[in-house]
Amino acid sequence: MKSRKLYNRISVLRKERNISRQELADIIGVNFQTIGYLEREEYNPSLDLAFKISEYFELPIEIIFSPKPMKSIYKEILELKQK
Amino acid sequence: MYKQLSKSSRRIWISSNFFSLFILLFFFYLGRSLDSAILFYAGGSLSVIAAIMTFIKAFIHTGLWKMVHSNKDLDERQNQVLLGALKNSYSVFTISVLLLVYGFALFDKQPIDVLLAACLLYVAHILPAAIIGWKEKAV
User: Where are the alpha helices (DSSP H) in B56-113?
Assistant: First the structure.
């Protein structure tokens, strides 16, 4: 079975926290090239890796990953506040 | 730290490595058919040097050899890539060797030579790394 493409906000969140790919890779325990693959959405992480990333950014997993193209994080927070 | 080569550079080094093996075998069979040991030793030694140099450049400097042969520190994506490469190389190598054995049995009527067997043994070892180097954007 072919898995769906997962969209993510890793690149935005990483830049916001001002850390390099290498630093993020060291924190979550992967090769730095894997961060590039994740940011380009060329690789779907395992559930364990997705949780590690969400724990590091201290955000719910669904804010970071989605099977649908993602809106800007600020728009999404505004929408959540309005609900 | 391993050297990051572009996909096209990696492809060039990998092709050169395989090409040097073909040249080595070419000199071996040419030397045998012309009964010239000098031709084999001169051409053969040059191709072996080329094979060693391209092997170092394509597989050692890029870390591809270590990735395939000492896979303790690989993450989940690298393990997935390695698994796919091993699967592909198993199919490619098995079919190629069987075709070669069949060809030898059909046309040559001789057993496979020591040099050809050594080349096949080498190819069996580098094929997964070559597939990764050929296909992947970054390794």
Answer: 64-69, 76-103
Helix A21-28, helix A47-57: angle, nearest 10? 120
Alpha carbon of B82: minimum distance to chain A alpha carbons (Å): 14
Indicate yes or no: CB of B76 within 8 angstroms of CB of A45. yes
pLDDT, tens digit (0-9, with 9 covering 90-100), for B59-93: 999 999 999 988 788 999 999 999 999 999 999 99
Are residues A41 and A7 in contact, defined by beta-carbon separation less than 8 angstroms?
A: yes
Of A31, A36, A46, the CB nearest to B78: A31
Domains in chain B: boundaries: 7-135
What are phi and psi for residue A8, nearest 5 degrees? -150, 170
Number of separate helices (H) and strands (E) present in chain A? 6, 2
On whether ipTM exceeds 0.85, the answer is no
Start-to-end Cα distance in chain A: 36
Q: Tell me the pTM.
A: 0.84
